[in-house]
Amino acid sequence: MQPRNMSMSGVVDLAAVKAAGEAKQKAEQARREQSARGGGQSTGPAQLVIDVTEETFESEVLQRSAEVPVVIDFWAEWCEPCKQLGPMLERLAQSYAGRIVLAKIDVDANQLLFQQFGVQGIPAVFAVLGGQAMPLFQGAAPEAQVREVLDQLIAVAEQRFGITGIQVDGEAAAAEAPKAPENPVLAAAHEALDRGDLGGAVNAYKNVLSDDPANVEAKLGLAQAELLRRVQDKDPQAVRKAAAESPADVDAQIDAADLDMVGGHVEDAFGRLVETVRRTAGEDRDRARVHLLELFDVVGSDDPRVSQARTTLARVLF
Asked: Taking every annotated instance into account, which residue ranges of this chain make up the domain Thioredoxin (predicted)?
């Protein structure tokens, strides 16, 4: 089943000003209550993925949603696409380290919730922010698209609802994180990148990803190798002159952003493309947005500059 509704349009429609204000009040109240209980206690990584039933929905989802975006995965044992999407969502929930919580709901055992949310088919993914429910997408989807939706959800949660997530016990998270065995193909890709064999590095990283599409290290290496290959034959002066003379020329801005990245000016690269998204429309706007997301991969999703740029991009888009 192909993903549908892979956007945050539902969030914007449901996040009315009144609802957002109420959600912010709930978030502040939750933080005050946590502080009164001795606050600052960390959540272990296992608690970032929870099984929810009709009996526990209010406490595990509605109450939690006042302090962290709760992503709901409607699934069933007989659903083959669910077996693809579910583990990915669990892995992503752990990787976001408290910025989201994943609530898994077995539709066979919780028909009332299934009906109340108006689910048309599974897997179906919803979110709850400050008690406000919204659809995210339906069907199995590539990890890059799912991550983009979750990033937008997190940005909207913070901007419109004042919800910033929960603290996670870093030591426990590190202890639970599986250690990947050494991959000789990945090692060869790193070596090719180090010696400047960009074509060889790109091919090697792609070989790793063909067998392991979720390999974060290979994704990062591939993004870096492709970036270096794009700029290796560019004339920096000509690129910057073209970008300065044609602010609305998407290709010129993309080339300049690539040079910014290679030169270590990460914020400048991100800001340039966010501004390009702001001033363009249609296919041009989408090309600028997609390239910005590719540059995020060069730096890595854990970098605070990426988080800040995602927030700014979400503000421009929505």
From this structure: 43-155
